[in-house]
Amino acid sequence: MSNKKVSHDPNKKMKRLMTLQIWFKDSDVIEHEYSFENKKEIGSGGYGTVYSAERDGEMFALKCFKNNDMNNEATKEFIKELKQLHALSSHPNINLFHGITRDPETNTFMLVLQFANRGNLRQYLKKKWQDGIFGISFNVVIQISKQITNGLGHLHKHNIIHCDLHSKNILINDDIFLIADFGLSRKIGETYSSSNSITKGMPAYLDPHCCCQPGKKPMKNRTSTA
């Protein structure tokens, strides 16, 4: 159990909000006026909670951080994910980033993302598993693999390693497979600051040499892709 205390100092909270606002002003990230309806929680991860919401008849995904006080670590992760999404989301196999918005009730910034209407790859595969057999053809497996590797190729072209690639972070919209959740992503060659950074990923998909040697550079996404 962590003994780390969360600061509720209103001055620190305001300072972090100002940090975000300055970054938004200096970038070309679009800030949307909050006009979303029918918000429902659809998932959560290490840092954030994801909601589905509707605006003008169109569905969106809204991702916000669990810690509304936005501590230093959460602020850095939020800005980092914004930068990664903004640079990468033009690819058809990357979850589309529409911009940011702010919840008027909590004053919390949220990512506005493409809504995936068929859930994630883990849910998809679970539905295909019946009586000990996957009801999925080899050709479909090849098509899924091609889409995921196309998305990964786009990441690597921009010198980005996902670092948390697993079946729950592969979303499905219609028949298109999308790589999502860039909160733990790194630039190629960037080391982890501590072993704690590594454990935020899903252990079954981690590169084994990173587990054995904390601080080791991740070697692209070969282990998680396999």
UniProtKB/TrEMBL annotation:
One of its GO terms (biological process) is regulation of autophagy. ATP binds at residue 63. GO terms for cellular component: cytoplasm. GO terms for molecular function: ATP binding; protein serine/threonine kinase activity. Keywords: ATP-binding, Kinase, Nucleotide-binding, Transferase. PANTHER family: SERINE/THREONINE-PROTEIN KINASE UNC-51-RELATED, SERINE_THREONINE-PROTEIN KINASE ATG1C. This is Kinase-like domain-containing protein. It comes from Gigaspora rosea.
